[in-house]
Amino acid sequence: MSEQNKSAPQGNPGDISNWPMLKVVYRTDPDKIAALLPPGITVGAEPNVNMTIYNVPVPDVPEYGILTTVNADYNGIQGEYTLGYGIDQESAIFISQELNGQPKYPCTTDYFRMGNQVSARCTHQGYTFFEFSGESTGVNAPQEEFEQNEWWIKVSRAVGIMPDEDRGYDFPPHVVRVWSKFGTAWREEVKGQLVLRDSPWDPFARLLPMREQLSAHLWWPEFLGREVTLEGPLDPKGFWPFSDTISGSRWPGTMGGPKSA
Fold this sequence. Notes:
Distance between the termini: 56 Å
Largest sheet: 7 strands, mixed, barrel
Strand content: over 45%
Number of helices: 4
Radius of gyration: 19 Å
Number of strands: 14
Order of helices and strands: EHEEEEHEEEEEEHEHEE
Strand order of the largest sheet: 1-3-4-5-10-11-12
CATH superfamily: Acetoacetate decarboxylase-like
Structural class: mainly beta
């Protein structure tokens, strides 16, 4: 079907399987990204933060979430380092991290479209850290098939009560590569503004300040392929400062919470 004759995706009224993803990209400072990357993972060519708001069935009930990545490379391969999946399904948080190192944590997301108006808001531990409001053009913006690499970290610190200087790992840090191939059923530009609000639990405004909003789109993906594989190890000593994180995300923390000032 030609792009001229292609129509927007349709579905049963209220069906959760046909929600578009809201994808917002902004530019930050390269040194801000570098400070969040463990040794062995490097800042990508463009210092971009990629935020995706979604509602997808997992496995057959709605999961509202916010995915945050930063452009980053590993072993010379371009990709995106994942800071977190803030989701509203507690059952998926712990097993995702234990199996594959997927950094999921609890978060409440309000996301809807009414006509061409698009609204999204994300809240964690009582702090609303993400707000977006805009208007879709309704016009398809075609996109070629593409491949994407996403980097997760699988790691387990040693069991026991001991000083940090004596602690090791039951499973030392390894990079998990998530390779995906996508098509695009439909994509609409959204004219709107992202607001990052200060939060100790999701410190975007402080640790990844927005210098320029680059794009915002509604995206109906076509899932063409996905592989999750264990890649190479990271330096255990170099990784140690990055092992304490906030609430299952990869934000730097202290005993599972925000890092104190």
